[in-house]
Design brief:
Layout lengths: L2 H20 L2 H9 L4 H23 L8 H23 L2 H8 L2 H11 L7 H19 L10 H23 L4 H22 L13 H26 L4 H8 L1 H13 L6 H24 L7
Helix pairs in contact: 1-10, 1-11, 1-12, 2-4, 2-10, 3-4, 3-9, 3-10, 4-5, 4-8, 4-9, 5-8, 5-12, 6-7, 6-8, 7-13, 9-10, 11-13
């Protein structure tokens, strides 16, 4: 396959992955509605994904001892971020959770400047201003100080922070192939899901055993399609695309998530929240396109 076709295929895979994650609320809420509330449904999804990957990992015989430990840990943190996101969209409005997750560029810039002590280009400060103002409008709800009011909103904020930490480490240190990276990602997600379930051990709300065929189908689809196939495709595709293009294409998640939740879940936002969302997305766009201007990897993932 020539370079042009690889680029086209990679672009299509990234955009498809973004659209899929914009619809991820469908399977997790289907499980919640079937009696598997809170983190419980996400535990099941992660277990299925991990179980499906185990024989593949064993057959590949990857030399785990030679892998960069920081890179492995960073990948697991990335999995934690997506699990927080997964639980968040069960317990809060889809659009709000997605938009709060896209506060990632703000966290990355702050971590780069104040944790690692690296110089930050003035454009990145513009990203922070847009992002924080967008956060204020999205969560303000007419009050003076914006703050999350639901557990799912807190999870979304933490998901963005964890994704920033994970993406920094993955970019700098990870040497894992796509399949192994996805496996570590799932393990990190499963560990986080178990912690969340331990903090809030919400048990099934109905008699869920034996599970309905539809519940099994949604759980397997979420584990196999969303957690495994889309992540392997995304890891493979990013090797052939500029970071800025990856960031822009992944924003298909926002459009698909917000529109689908409005159409099929009846979830809407107030006028100022729409403005806040627009500012958050503007911050993300500024972050990814500034890659071309200042020669630094974009933070949006």
């Amino acid at each position: 396959m020539d370079t042009a076709r690889k680029t086209l295929l990679a672009s299509g895979l990234v955009a498809t992955a973004g659209c899929l994650w914009g619809l991820y609320w469908v399977p997790v809420r289907a499980l919640s509605g079937a009696g598997w509330p809170g983190a419980l449904g996400s535990v099941i999804i992660a277990l299925i994904a991990g179980t499906l990957l185990v024989p593949v990992i064993m057959a590949r015989r990857f030399a785990w001892r030679s892998a960069d430990r920081v890179g492995v840990l960073a990948t697991a943190v990335g999995g934690s971020a997506f699990m927080l996101y997964s639980v968040g969209i069960v317990e809060a409005r889809v659009a709000i959770v997605i938009l709060l997750f896209y506060l990632t560029p703000v966290w990355t810039t702050l971590i780069t400047r104040f944790v690692f002590g690296h110089a930050v280009h003035p454009i990145r400060y513009g990203v922070i201003v847009l992002g924080l103002f967008g956060l204020f409008l999205t969560l303000g709800r007419g009050g003076f100080l914006p703050r999350p009011e639901r557990a799912g909103e807190w999870y979304a904020l933490l998901a963005g922070l964890f994704w920033s930490l994970g993406s920094i480490g993955i970019s700098a240190r990870s040497d894992l192939p796509a399949v192994e990276s996805t496996f570590v990602f799932v393990i990190g997600a499963l560990a986080t899901a178990l912690i969340l379930f331990g903090l809030d051990p919400t048990l099934p709300t109905t008699d869920v055993w034996p599970p309905a065929l539809s519940s099994v189908a949604w759980a397997v689809a979420a584990g196999a399609v969303w957690w495994i196939a889309s992540m392997i495709a995304l890891v493979w595709a990013t090797a052939y695309l500029e970071p800025a293009r990856v960031g822009i294409l992944l924003m298909s998640e926002v459009l698909v998530g917000v529109v689908s939740a409005a159409l099929f879940a009846g979830e809407t936002m107030a006028g100022l929240q729409w403005l806040g969302g627009a500012l958050l997305i503007s911050a993300a766009v500024l972050d990814v396109v500034s890659d071309r201007w200042i020669g630094a990897p974009a933070a949006t993932g």
